[in-house]
Amino acid sequence: MHQQPQGAAFDVVLLLHVGCVVAGFATTVTAATTADRLLGAGSPLPEALRRYFRPGVNWAGRAVYGIPVFGFALVAMSQGAYAVTDGWILAGLVLFVALALVAEVVLWPAERRVQAALVSRAGDLRPPSDPVVAAAATTMARAASVALVLLIAGTVVMIAQP
């Protein structure tokens, strides 16, 4: 077994890796909370919800893609202390792939459906009680909850290194 990696460069990459996890937590909790708030909102829609659901890509949520990028960099910088074949690293990769699938296939498309459904063809906002808006917001909230569980599980695996 090799020594625990040390050095400023390793520490900076580790901070970037952890920063991506924290950004993932923040954006996922925000998505779940905002979707829940939308389901309970009345008409007219509060300005904060209007701002959140403006059309566009959730670029902040894509910070989760930095997790494996910086993770692989940490493995490469570890001078043999860690290997991609370590069980805890493989478990983390599996959890990340599941997270990416949930985000790309369910969460972010549901978020885009909410964005599109809120605005009617005339440019007026539909009420949150509209069945299309409610269904997309419910899917978004559930997918964000699953993504959050996957992020927590990945964090536990990375800290425990079983």
Element-level helix/strand string? HHHHH
What Rg is obtained from the alpha carbons, in whole angstroms?
A: 19 Å
Cα distance spanning the termini:
15 Å
Mean pLDDT: 90
User: How much of the residues is beta strand, in percent?
Assistant: under 5%
Count all strands and give the number.
0
Poorly predicted sequence stretches spanning 5 or more consecutive residues: none
How does the helix and strand content classify structurally? mainly alpha
Counting DSSP H or I runs of 4 or more residues, the number of helices is 5
Whole-number count of domains = 1
The shape, in one word, is elongated
Q: Sheet with the most strands?
A: none
* Helical content (DSSP H or I, runs of 4+): 55-70%
